[in-house]
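Hey, does this match?
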Amino acid sequence: MNTTEYHQLVDLQMQAIEEGIDDSGADIDYESVGNVMTLEFDDGSQIIINRQEPMQEIWVASKSGGFHFALKDGEWTCSKTGLILMELVQQECSKHAGEPVSW
């Protein structure tokens, strides 16, 4: 995958996360600046999702630690847990929000 394709795929994934948060009805604020998306919760905690262009990965930092996702078989998959990015983001949002968050 070239750099342009990488950015297009990450853009789609970030948009899907934003739409998922909106659809969930959860009180989660999000902001994208440059290569970083920040999700902020009522208690002040955050989840940081950012592009790692040199490795062609997406990285997530949350209360549970750091996670690295690479595109495998069309899904952004965590090298540590094997979870799909959207699954992990939903799990982490639930932990940070203190209530189930799903989309």
